[in-house]
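Why do we bother with holo predictions? Because pocket geometry can differ from the apo form. Keep that in mind while you read this record for magnesium ion.
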Amino acid sequence: MYKNYADKKVFFLDLDGTVYLSDTLISGAKEAIEALRQNAKVFFLTNNSSKSRDTYAKKLTNLGIPTSREDIITSSGATAHYLKLNGIKEVSVLGTDGLKDELKENGINVVKSAKTAVLGFDTDLSYANLCAFCDLIRGGARYIATHPDFNCPTKDGFIPDVGSFMALINASTGRSPEVICGKPNAIMAKYALSRAQALPSEAVMVGDRIYTDLKFGADNGISAALVLTGEGTREELASSGVTADVFNSLYDIVFYGVGEKFKQKLGAGLSGIKNIFAKRSKNSAHVPQDSLPNEDSSTLPNASCRTDYEAMNEAKKVDDSPIFTSKTEDLTNE
Ligand SMILES: [Mg+2]
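The structure, written out:
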């Protein structure tokens, strides 16, 4: 294993762009995870609050990485964790059944008209439900969002994510969320570390998105590792102000310096990845065409998939409690 991480006990892995791209496993990811699991705990962290933990566990297992729901940490879980810690037992939700089920499993009632409104990634969005949610916000309900990402990557391009919904709701109601729970916020870090029963110094966050994955690590005392198999590039990291180590891939973190044989194998994988990114970026107004990689380049495009920072910074003021500092603090019963 790469020397800097030899003593780490927990690896938090982002999914899309780190372990797989859409439905394609990234070269070497399976082997790297098998090796990591021999010496450390591995958890998969995603901000996507539209899908259940069972859905992710099934997808990873089908890709050849045996995974249980307990190995998955989502922003839905972080939101449930936050609500429980703050004694909130009843909420209204704009989101999928996956989010509602996670909240219900944690003893939180989901009702039509509550004093707290939770915004998730509602991929089944209906106009009537959107209007009802805006009514609650306009009426003064406490407003919580699962995560801040503006866009979600799919194999066919970007689709509007929670950050975009926040912008729409803000235009209608004049309000932004008081709390945002997903990466890079401390709420997600506290939740993830409590699930792993680890200290920040014992963990590594590996991901491809600088302003969520790596900022999550850097802001919360967790080592951050950028992998170049997704969105983020060395150049973007250098100008971001975020401190992180850089690797070609998850495989390189485990088998650093393995030699030309693997690099050739990864090279073949990278052409496939670049094709997927070219397709994803086709319909995105955020990605200039000249940012797409050249055929002979190993650099992936800087797909500008930002988060709603203004809203996030506002929300952060509400939760300034210190990061998890001991293994006995803040543990959930999951
Ligand atoms: Mg990613």
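The two ends are 30 Å apart (CA to CA).
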